[in-house]
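Journal club prep — side note

Before the paper discussion, L.F. wants everyone to see what a predicted structure for a comparable chain looks like in token form. Sequence:
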Amino acid sequence: LHPNYAGDVGIGINPKLAERIKQADVVLLIGGRLGEMPSSDYTLLKSPYPDQALVHVHADAGELGRVYRPTIAINASPTAFVEAFAKRKPAARPSWAAEAEKAHAAYLEWSTPPQTG
């Protein structure tokens, strides 16, 4: 499990994750469509123009801008995008690293069943 993983969107979304998405400066959507279910009935992002900068990566050019108007639309498969993105030289410690750690911890807390008995 990648340390930046914060959970899935859709049915039963962690409320903390939903709030993080709503408060985010930038949303990077790789390969997703953000239809009715994953967008929590279109409430996670304002449609058609989200308050957040939206970077949407999708293999089908017809999906880009169909529901949400992205700040940046990238017509690429998720695999091709991630491979190209991984080649960049990242900052030593990105400014968002602490928030990613908190989001991952919230995911682990949300997804770990409580101990009984």
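L.F.'s comment for the group: Residues 1-78 form a domain with the Rossmann fold fold (CATH 3.40.50.1220). Keep this in mind when we get to the figures.
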